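A common beginner's mistake is to predict each chain separately and then try to dock the pieces by hand. The better habit, illustrated here, is to supply every component at once so that their relative placement is modeled jointly.
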Amino acid sequence: MGGDHAPEEIVKGALEARELLDAGDQLQLIGVQEIVEQQLSTLGARDGAVTIVPAEEIIGMDDPPVESLRRKRKSSIAIMARMAAHEETDAVISAGNTGACVAACQLRMRNLPNVNRPGIAVVLPTLGGPVTVCDVGANVSCKPINLYQYAVMSSVYSTRILGIENPRIAIMSIGEEESKGNDLVKRTRELLRSDPSLNFIGNLEGRDIFDGSCDVVICEGFVGNVILKLTEGLVEMLFQAIKHELVTGDLRLAMEFKPIMKEIYKKYDYHEYGGALLLGIDGTSVICHGSSKSRTIKNAILAAKKFYTLKINERIMQRLSSSLVKANGQ
Amino acid sequence: MGGDHAPEEIVKGALEARELLDAGDQLQLIGVQEIVEQQLSTLGARDGAVTIVPAEEIIGMDDPPVESLRRKRKSSIAIMARMAAHEETDAVISAGNTGACVAACQLRMRNLPNVNRPGIAVVLPTLGGPVTVCDVGANVSCKPINLYQYAVMSSVYSTRILGIENPRIAIMSIGEEESKGNDLVKRTRELLRSDPSLNFIGNLEGRDIFDGSCDVVICEGFVGNVILKLTEGLVEMLFQAIKHELVTGDLRLAMEFKPIMKEIYKKYDYHEYGGALLLGIDGTSVICHGSSKSRTIKNAILAAKKFYTLKINERIMQRLSSSLVKANGQ
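With all components supplied together, the output reads:
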């Protein structure tokens, strides 16, 4: 039921993923039964392609997350998190109210051992390859230990999911020099330095995210969310500016340039990675952008399967249990 | 002596500005005498166009700001701030080590009455018009009262310098809803709300900076610096991506597209505004990007003159002295 294009694009994405999943994989759609059934039939889904888990309530995109969860216990998001907590499903995916999704997963599913706070990781495509940024909004009052754990978890993610050996980890700061940054950055840097298993390369400035100088960027949720949203908004504005300039100028050139714009959009479109991973909870939870279309939903389902199948959480647990930096190490 | 292209571009920019200033305006270049003289002569400056204030030392772009200032009391940056403090000059401009510039101005020049901490304001050009962002790096441990004062000062700046009547002020947050944000954002919002003379419109998400929904964005220095640098880096990457796509594809199209890229670059180039203003100090201080070329320096000099002539600081003092929100109001 969640997202700006629900239910159509969500159901469509699920059916697209269905074609690429194994026969043994089961796909469950949680939502208002009649609406989902209607949509499945409109899209000509074959019988038994997916099963429907009925939900009577819907949490709106702008509803206050925690309050809505409490009030709407029969919403699709609340049911989703309960199913994951009770191991009635191996992975959950939503394009609904992000705050409510994160809160539901945090409330219902336990954290992994040695994880204090989960973090949301997104992959940004750049000229220098995919960069994993964590946290982009789960935790707006981070402590050094949280950022340290984000570094470990994102490093595992980057290696296992993106295939990057020994990923270069940087901490977002406001200058490259040692002396730069706020108190949180300085204290986190010490923790990151103290773990020789991390390939920590130091401070990163905002301008360097996209130039291929690192594979993982660690930051507190407020800063990460600004980075994510700003990137979206700026790309949008620049493409609009180009379009405006082309259309008011030379219409033929505009037509010729269109496929190139599309090509670039495709290459640097983070929808390609199918949403954000909630790292640190005992389960697999993929959070999609509210604007997700079927392609993103399809990719999110495949990403969730990959995350589950590759046992990312087991690797994270191994790394954190063998680390000398513990929760009281802040 | 400061900036990646000093002394050539700095001296060139000064001479370009000279042509646009009034006869009564005096332009002083602080730097190593022989180097500046040499540059003036290479550029064929007429006698008396500018005067040279000799400085024996140079603070490098990557030198630790505060330490360098202490060690290099005869550096151009240290002398610049002393001259401003002693009212031997009405406005100062530098493209040198930003940290050192800010620190020098903060140490030597007093704050305006009722200002607790100065903030750096930059103007970002957007499709919806120029947006003033403050603070972008002077203050990484902001309190609500600091952000409140940035809002008042930026509002005056936006009105007087950019001609925007009753500028819409937003606070950078991670969601538009009231409940969103960190503790600093929530507490600042109360202060901003309590001042009816401010046109405060609430939270702003990263994606909305560029869509014309506000005129002034308030944030703490760490976040603002990330916004500024990220914007630089992302614009750079996107243009490179477009170039790459064009060059590997159709070379004729690449050639045709070049002037359009240039046009966009010009329109959305924040060098146009000539640097950042240090708001809240008793004087006029413009801080330019290290990469500044002569055009930026020229614009910075003209911006400094405008700031001084329009008595922005007097307006700021009036507004803050009549405000009911005082420094103990945090």
